[in-house]
Design a protein that fits this description.
Blueprint: E1 19-22, H1 26-31, H2 33-45, E2 49-51, H3 61-65, H4 69-80, E3 89-91, H5 94-107, H6 112-119, E4 121-123, H7 124-131, E5 136-138, E6 142-146, H8 150-155, H9 159-166, E7 172-175, H10 190-193, H11 195-211, E8 216-219, H12 222-235, E9 241-243, H13 244-251, E10 252-254, H14 256-262
Parallel strand pairs: 1-2, 1-3, 3-4, 6-7, 6-8, 8-9
Antiparallel strand pairs: 5-10
Helix pairs in contact: 2-13, 5-6, 7-9, 11-12
């Protein structure tokens, strides 16, 4: 099953590649670099060489969504040459992934080079589930509730791939929250420009998350987690939260035939890189 935004052609997926680029995102790089390293470890565990271009910066989304397309184009242009060739570009965020896969085309509608770049962008869970077609089993038990960002759900439509990966993990109980598809109120600069609306939205979200009784909150978008974690702290409530990449790495192992297929043991993550990944 291919995910696609309504009004666009259904996406087709390439064979598992020998190598990928990893786009770390600003929020992961700044606030939770260990989640970026865990995402890289997941990819390497599948026998894929990971390339991390050192000069990567913002994807341009803050400027684009704030109504500054010229400034966004400058940011985008500074990134394009950092990912040459045809290797896929894996992004641990549906929000940044949506910007790079969909909106770069809008900023450069006449550029076939940009269109080719956009076609190479995959959100992390999408890449693992639909390109790598991973086969895992669970490690340990966990009680979780998942929040999916608006961009991940509505632009990249990868809420289904995150669920499919979690569904492979015996011992992991995924609780369902009320009004699951509703926004957490972050929206990047939206939460700064409209703080009172954002506060009301995130308070609704935290109430529904806590009502599930889950022990841990997971999400593939750290911006949403920052917003939710901040609201919980302000309310004096506790719900531990982690990036989905870190949760998947801790609670999954490849099936034995998958390990043999990849030609590497689970514990062997020392693949050769063109650039040392320091997310």
């Amino acid at each position: 099953m291919s995910s696609h935004t309504p009004g666009t052609p259904a996406r087709t997926y390439p064979p598992r590649p020998e190598a990928v680029y990893f786009y770390g995102t600003c929020l992961v790089d700044t606030f939770v670099p260990e989640a970026g390293m865990d995402a890289i470890a997941l990819l390497e565990r599948e026998g894929i060489r990971v390339i991390f271009p050192d000069n990567q910066t913002c994807c341009g989304q803050p400027a684009f969504t704030s109504g500054f397309p010229d400034e966004a184009r400058q940011v985008v242009a500074s990134q394009l040459d950092l990912f040459p060739g045809d290797y896929p570009i894996v992004v641990p965020s549906g929000s940044c992934g949506g910007m790079m896969h969909h909106h770069y085309r809008r900023l450069f509608p006449e550029s076939p080079e940009v269109a080719d770049f956009c076609d190479r962008v995959f959100e992390l869970t999408e890449f693992l589930a639909r390109v790598c077609r991973v086969r895992w089993h669970g490690v340990g038990e966990a009680s979780i509730v998942m929040h999916t960002s608006c961009s991940a759900r509505r632009e990249m439509q990868v809420h289904t791939t995150a669920r499919s990966l979690l569904g492979q993990l015996d011992g992991v109980t995924l609780h369902e929250q009320a009004y699951e598809s509703e926004c957490c109120g972050f929206g990047g600069t939206f939460s700064v420009r409209h703080p009172h609306i954002s506060q009301a939205m995130v308070e609704d979200k935290t109430r529904h998350l806590l009502a599930t009784g889950a022990h841990t909150l997971v999400s593939a978008d750290w911006g949403c987690l920052l917003n939710i974690k901040g609201s919980l702290a302000y309310q004096g409530r506790i719900l531990p939260a982690t990036h989905l990449a870190s949760f998947l790495l801790a609670h999954s192992r490849p099936d034995s035939d998958e390990i043999a297929h990849n030609g590497a043991a689970v514990s062997d993550l020392a693949h050769t890189k063109e650039a040392q990944p320091h997310v």
